[in-house]
Amino acid sequence: MSTPKKPSGCSSCGEKSCAAAGRRPDESPEEFADRQKLARNLCGIRHKILVMSGKGGVGKSTVAANLAAAMAADGLKVGLLDVDFHGPSIPRLMGVEGQRAGVGPEEMLLPVRGAGGVLVMSMGLLMAGAEQAVIWRGPLKMGVIKQLLRDTAWGELDCLVIDSPPGTGDEPLSVAQLVPDADGAVLVTTPQDLSTGDVRRSVTFCRQVNLTVLGIIENMSGFLCPHCGKETPLFKTGGGRALAEEMKVPFLGSLPMDPRVVETSDEGRPFVLAHPDSRASGAFLTAVSPVLQMVKQGKET
Ligand code: ADP
Fold first, then answer.
1. Mutate to test the pocket of ligand 1, among 265, 269, 272 (most ligand atoms within 8 A of CB)
2. Which one, 185, 208, 253, 280, has least CB within 10 Å?
3. Is any atom of ligand 1 closer than 6 Å to the C-beta of 58?
């Protein structure tokens, strides 16, 4: 397991296995310097986990926010980076909507401390109005994703959770390429999407970019009635596990549809913090426990 290195500068590091240790033949000196700056900035982060989904609206940001909050509640130093520009919902989920990221020494962006002490960075913390629609074209978005990774002053973290753009296009591709030493990806899906091939495409995508699939979480699998506590499977269940077996990736678990998830999300409180004893929290913590263990095991004592 990797140990934290002081982001003091590539020249003093001497880590030969680092992707930024040497200039690639196809790189200009400027591109190399830029890549080194990115690597240096992420160097003090022991684990990097991408949260991905085949499409939007499946609860990817909810999972990313609660994963970060669960780690922080376990005493880990955690950052949460929102590079899903389609709807930067992380500031709202982490209770920092309306706040603005500051600028520190060397023009570095200062993350905002959100729910549970998680350090948050998002386009939503840089834009003038939360309702401002992002209509930039591809290359500009790619540049901003890189900037957020390279220019955010994370300091030393146990884990950075990255809420990636949905799908398998250029945007998630650039995230995967910019973080070559990521531990892997947590894939979020809903039971309805299992048949559409979205998850298969996401797994294939991860394999193509050499990103380990840490596992699949099936979200909104069954409705948890807030009145009687009964769980009703609204859609076919068990598909996530079957698909994970078929694709030979871990199935982490299922998360029920619980109206309190929406409620607490809108209030800026991740549900694992707001309702730690609820069935939804229990299911979520069980699902992410292998990921949590992986991060905790690497922690220096
Ligand atoms: P994505 O990031 O995939 O677009 P979000 O995390 O923004 O999806 O979730 C979409 C909507 O679904 C939000 O309103 C969120 O509160 C709600 N949601 C997500 N997971 C659950 C759940 N398990 N139970 C109830 N509502 C949920």
1. 265
2. 208
3. yes
Residue 301 has pLDDT above 90, yes or no: no
Structure tokens at 189: 């899906």
Give me the domains of the chain, ranges plus CATH numbers.
47-300 (3.40.50.300)
- Are 252 and 216 spatial neighbours (Cβ–Cβ below 8 Å)? yes
Q: CA–CA distance from 150 to each of 75, 175, 196, 270 (Å)?
A: 26, 12, 35, 27
Tokens 């009635």 correspond to 225
Q: How confident is the model at residue 127 (pLDDT cuts 50, 70, 90)?
A: confident
Nearest Cα residue to atom 5 of ligand 1: 59
Measured CA to CA in angstroms, residue 118 lies from 158, 188, 219 at distances of 11, 21, 23
Contact 287, 252 (CB under 8 A): yes
Q: 159 CB under 6 A from ligand 1?
A: no
For 191-209, the pLDDT digits (tens) are 876 656 888 999 999 999 9
User: What's the CA gap between 57 and 123, in Å, rounded?
Assistant: 19
262 CA from centroid of ligand 1 (Å): 7
Within 13 Å and on the Cβ side, how many CA atoms surround 256?
20
